[in-house]
Amino acid sequence: KRNVLIIGAGGVAQVVAHKAAQNNDKLGDLHIASRTLAKAEAVIASVHEKSAMKVAGVFKAHALDAMDTAAVAALIRDIGVQIVINVGSPFVNMTVLDACIETGVAYMDTAIHEDPSKICEIPPWYGNYEWKKRDATKAAGVTAILGIGFDPGVVNVWARAAADMMDKVHSIDIVDINAGSHGKYFATNFDPEINFREFTGTVYSWQGGKWQENAMFEIGKTWDLPIVGPSKAYLSGHDEVHSLSANYPDADVRFWMGFGEHYINVFTVLKNLGLLSEQPVVTAEGLEVVPLKVVKAVLPDPATLAPGYTGKTLIADFVKGEKDGKPVEVMIYNSADHKEAYEEVGSQGISYTAGVPAVAAAILVAEGVWDVGQMVNVEELDPRPFINLLNTIGLPSYIKDDQGDRLLQYEI
Ligand code: NDP
């Protein structure tokens, strides 16, 4: 399969565009389509500024409303792409997926579908939207890879890789720490609307074979991590818990996210005042406003944080289980540097870690290695070629177990 359409022109799309350009010998023609044409054009301009195209080739920008399935399908046919990397807002997943099924091209995204009118979905989230299209995807022979960013994405691949080293898996704990600093009083690393939605609802984790419900910031734990040192993280809800619990129902599956005290204080004040609500309120002047939209409008645009961002991210999977009747434990991890990411692709480290895996998956689909002709969550695919490829394109995986701490690399 060749020729790629990137949907969205935000922070993650910027990384996808640069990495796809760096690998355009394998991916063919490149296109980027977003709601605002100027943003898509700016992404391409930054690719050319860094001379990122590996070989001379096409990179075109298009205006597109990705909520309109017919428009997405028409564009796919018109430009002749066989792979769509959807890194638009999570509200557009289902319309883009439908267009891919209709046109028979491969689909991938980095987040679960969300309905803008709902603040909190009932688990398993994939079951509410994407998984309902499994049969249609298979009937069309379409490869649809769900959630191939970093988390979800690489962390699912690591969970599978660790599970493959064991006879039985007891627990999968995913820990996400951003030890970087953007230097602002308060800012979110990506769209505040999406970011806050993640933390205002019930925290679901899969423990003892059933969903456990907690409140955000209710359960904290300090994790001993390489590179960033001991870090406090809080049990949080996240996409990958929902697919991993379906694929490893006998294991406890938890997601932990690191927050500083300052973030928690500001978030708590905003939430308790009702400023994170998506329900409109009417002011004394009769003006109807959505508080969450107002908060988004006054916070720094996440895209503007990248130039001054310093420090590192550290994301790790801790997987415990049994091998030959003995307990085993592995940690698989990666650390990305915000400043290095900015210098390479013009984005901060969090967008970098989300965008690079999607391009690795597109390369594996283009090469036929991951072109499975059906809908899958990432842990259902062979992790080995993906981990090896990521090692060479900017996101190496390291493993720590009783044999030490080293690069995770497979001989295939
Ligand atoms: P941004 O908000 O920066 O960008 C989203 C882009 O989508 C914008 O360019 C926006 O257009 C575009 N868009 C929104 N609605 C439409 C529409 N109807 N039609 C066409 N384009 C549209 O988001 P990010 O780049 O930070 O994130 C992109 C995706 O990646 C999100 O789904 C996010 O949840 C996910 N993500 C995944 C991570 C992972 O590790 N798995 C980590 C970080 C993010 P406009 O600019 O005009 O508003």
Automatic annotation (TrEMBL):
Residues 149-394 form the Saccharopine dehydrogenase-like C-terminal domain. It comes from the Bacteria. Pfam families: Sacchrp_dh_C, Sacchrp_dh_NADP. InterPro entries: NAD(P)-bd_dom_sf, Sacchrp_dh-like_C, Sacchrp_dh_NADP-bd. Residues 4-145 form the Saccharopine dehydrogenase NADP binding domain. This is Saccharopine dehydrogenase family protein. It comes from Pseudogemmobacter lacusdianii.
